[in-house]
Give the backbone structure.
Amino acid sequence: MTPEACPAAGRVLAISGGIGGAKLALGLYRALAPQSLIVLANTADDFEHLGLHISPDLDTLMYTLAGINNPELGWGRDEETWTFMRALGELGGETWFRLGDGDLATSIERTRRLAGGETLSEITDDFAGRLGVRAQLWPMSDDAVRTRVETAGQELAFQHYFVRERCAPAVTGFRFEGAECARPSPRLIRALGSNGLRAVVICPSNPFISVEPILAVPGVRAALSSCAAPVIAVSPVVGGRALKGPTDKMMRELGIEIGPTAIAARYRDLIDGFVLDLEDEAARQRCGVPSLCARIVMRTLADRERLAREVLRFADSLDSRTVG
Ligand code: FO1
């Protein structure tokens, strides 16, 4: 399809974690002129592993927008080979976090360039450009922020909880180590302060581990709440279940009612509109902000693009209400 004509000309900023958020980010990429999309990625599940700097959400978004993501796994590259992992296993190395050969190249080159003094933003701009991504892909910060998952027994580094322990431990809270000293991406603060933004879309990512680490970076929350463009969040839960990953499990363990109302409440001071699934229509009145009911389960590419267009139309309708 041709990119949608832009009634309220301007750029769209999508805030996203990994796999779930990347689906809508791709929909927006296809629905808009690609250069008008900025995707802001969570980097708090980055970690140092096997001597490498791994940026899972950035890479998931980059591969997805480049059309080279692994559709079965949701993370990593398509047509991947696993020689490195096999050889590492033979040597008794750590194999719980699987890095395909192509994906390994991304992490090796990123690590080398970081050690040479380049920033994560500079490296990501270059990688994304080389892979043919025409949207802007921005890490939330060039400083290290690391999600720590508090569980009944112990505090775990994020990937240890998520991949090594398969999200099994019951969570009691989260800590974003380093967030207090992290500086937000300067171009993010500039974009949010400009009047060239059409909308901000909080993708259907996990609020606890994907969106809230971004909001924990000093200055991001304030810039978002004073931003002139409408801020829309899309629910990551439908009918009491997460679209992807452990959002519902975490809500249960934290004693939060699983549903769009609780998600909207977490963003209430930031959002101008909320998108929930048709199945959850009964919760609409309790969202506390103007809402749109849509089909938010994205199975196909067409689903992603359709939802993106609906979200943009909803944002434009809120914008014209504010202006006029
Ligand atoms: N997720 C897994 O469940 N198992 C893995 O072995 C794994 C490896 C991996 C390698 C590179 C990468 O970019 C992502 C990878 N992921 C893996 C996904 C990742 O742990 C999560 O999707 C995010 O951190 C949560 O958004």
Q: What stands out?
A: The first strand starts at residue 11 and ends at 16. The first helix runs from residue 19 to 31. The chain is about 40% helix and 20% strand. Residues 17-19, 45, 56-57, 59-60, 75-76, 97-99, 103, 159, 162-163 surround FO1 (CB under 6 Å).
